[in-house]
Every structure is written in structure tokens, then in C-alpha cells.
Amino acid sequence: MTYKIEIMPSGISFESESNILDDAIAQNIYLEYSCKSGDCGVCSADVLSGVVINENGKAVSSGKVLTCKSRAETNITLKANYFPELSNIKQQTIPCKVSSVTYTTDDIVILTFRFPPSLLFEYLPGQYIDLSFNGIKRSYSIANANVTGKGIELHIRKVPNGKMSTQIFGQVKVNQLMRMEGPKGTFFVRDNIKPLILLATGTGIAPIKAIVENLVHSGDEREINIYWGMQYKGELYCTELFALAKAYKHINVTPVLSREETYIGCKGYVQDIVCDTFDSLIKYEVYACGSLSMINDAAKKFKERQLPSDSFHSDAFTPAKQI
User: The domain 3-86 belongs to what CATH superfamily?
Assistant: First the structure.
């Protein structure tokens, strides 16, 4: 059966016969989402009318559901965020070739990719792609701003016994052919003038780098505060952000190390350092990318610092399903 899905407060509607989020995206209607695995909770929506079969197979006529794991049982009305900014960006599955391989640490490699000359791949900084190689598919954030049209950069961490990273580390060479699907996700800077707090753990710095590069390229001079969590100083591989902080007075980068005992800078966790630094977050907008535990803890603690609920945006790195 096909049912009508109405999204409030935007008033936009579409038809769905299976997964609500997938059917919306197929019709170029982008509701808020991130992992699409039901783990991060970003795609949560309120059921205002009708019946939805939720991620647990239960019928829901009021309350919250995850659109990435739910389907309509009747015509329904949902309260959910909708992003018309993404409606003109086409999701594609495209061939790509590795143009460079750079090992920045023992367990992080930066791969850059080029596309066929006639192909146009558009995205908003902060979004991610699904990379397919040797029958394995994994999600990676795009690490560069879309300002040259010459390809994209991915930061890939080696995962113990990880199927994809085992295929890549020490194996992948320049000119290796792969495939990408995307862009995906609704993690991008909203169109306003609020000062920014950007949080990252690990390779979650990748989309933050893309976002900052784009803000600089567009001449945006709002205050940008970057907090990057790693375990050790030697892991702070993203030198481009430190260079931008030196070049622009409105950009600040604060490394936060959790295991470097002799480090004289900020120690602990990024969300705690933000809380120690700002008495109130009421005027700020926050973008957080990295571990789900960091994001959940930051959302809770920042709410206590008066951050409006609609000013917290996140992209959680969740464990890949082993396929």
C-alpha cells in the first residue's frame, strides 16, 4: 500500500510504500538523518496523526519514531526537519579512482579521489559518501570543501579486523578503481550568522575541515571555535586546520587529549572543555562529529548550558554492520 506522508511545519508531502526515509530521499525530499542504521537518533520524528510501524515493529500513533527504520501503516503527519537546500543535489553512484594515498599516522590514511572528467559531483561540506571496494561498503565523511570540483578527500581510520580498512591499509595504490554513492546526510552549516562551536573526535575532524574550508572560501567571518579530541599529540594529523587558525583571527582550534600525560594543553573530553570555557551557549550553534558517546554527552551537557535544541547538529560515527 502507498500512503501520503505530510511533514510539518514545512507542509511538504510525499508518498511512501515502505521505508519512510528512503522513500522521501528517492523523491528529493531530505528529512534530517545521519547513520541510517537506527543508532544515532538524528532522524527522530514526532507522529502527529496516523499510524507508523516503528523500528521495533510496533504501531505508533503518537510519540517519536526513527524514519530510517519505520514505515507508514496509514496516511500520516510527522513533525520533522526538512532541508530544501539539498533538493537540487543529486545522489549518484559513480566510479572514482584513487589519486593519492597519504599515511598521516599509523592508523589513519588520507585518500583523495578523482572522477571522470565529464562528471559533476555536488555536495554540501559536512556530508558523507558510501565507498564500495571489493564487495564491501562503508560510510566516510567528505573532508574537503567543494570549491574546485576536482574530486574529494576521505580520512580513513584502521579498524581492528575491519573488512574495509584491511583492504585499504598497505594495499590500495594510486589509480585503484572504486565506486562511491552519495552525497548523503544532513550535516552541514545552516544559513545563519550564529558563532560556531565545532566538535570532533578522531577522524570526525574530516567534515569539520570541509566545513571550515568552505566558510573561509565564502568569506564568512563569524567566530569559529574548533575542539578536536584525540588520545595523543602525535595523532593531531589535520594540520590544515591549525594553519587556518594562524591565518584567520576568527578561527580558533583547541586540541583536547585524553591520554597524553605530559601534555600542557587541554586534557579530557571535548564536551567538557567546551562547558569549562563557556558559561552559556545560548547564542551559539554547535556541530559535533565523532563517537556516539561524545555526541550524546555533549547534547545533554550543552542543554544545561542553555544551548537551544535546534542549535545542536550531529553526525555520529557508528560501528559498521559487518557486510
Answer: Beta-grasp domain (3.10.20.30)
Domain boundaries, the chain: 3-86, 92-184, 196-317
Predicted local confidence at residue 243, as pLDDT = 97
Question: Would you call the peptide bond into 95 cis, given omega within 30 degrees of 0 as the criterion?
Answer: no
The C-alpha cell that represents 186 in the structure block = 544532513
Is 181 in contact with 130 (CB distance < 8 Å)?
Answer: yes
First-to-last alpha carbon distance for the chain, in angstroms, is 30
37-40 contacts at long range (C-beta below 8 A, 24 or more positions apart): 37/68, 37/318, 37/321, 38/66, 38/68, 38/69, 39/292, 39/316, 39/318, 39/319, 40/292, 40/295, 40/314, 40/315, 40/316, 40/318
- The answer for 28, left when phi > 0, alpha when psi is -120 to 50, beta otherwise, is left
For CA atoms 76, 79, 80, 82, the dihedral sign is positive
- Measured between alpha carbons, how far is 319 from 121 in angstroms, rounded to an integer? 27
Report the C-alpha gap between 256 and 131 in whole angstroms.
30
Cβ–Cβ < 8 Å for 208, 145: no
C-alpha cell of residue 130: 558510501
pTM (whole model) above 0.90: yes
Query: Could you check whether 92-184 and 196-317 share the same CATH topology?
Result: no
Over the chain (323 residues), the average pLDDT of each successive run of 10 is: 96 96 95 91 96 94 96 97 92 96 96 93 96 96 85 95 94 97 96 96 98 96 97 96 97 96 92 98 98 96 97 88 48
Q: Which CATH number fits domain 196-317: 3.30.1780.10, 3.30.230.20, 3.40.50.80, 3.50.50.60?
A: 3.40.50.80
Name every residue whose Cβ is closer than 8 Å to that of residue 142 and which is 6 or more positions away in sequence: 123, 125, 126, 127, 128, 129, 152, 153, 154, 182, 183, 206, 207, 210
**Torsions phi, psi of 27, nearest 5?**
-105, 20
What's the confidence (pLDDT) of residue 321? 55
Class of domain 92-184: mainly beta
Question: How confident is the model at residue 323, as a pLDDT?
Answer: 44
The answer to whether the CB of 274 falls within 8 A of the CB of 244 is no
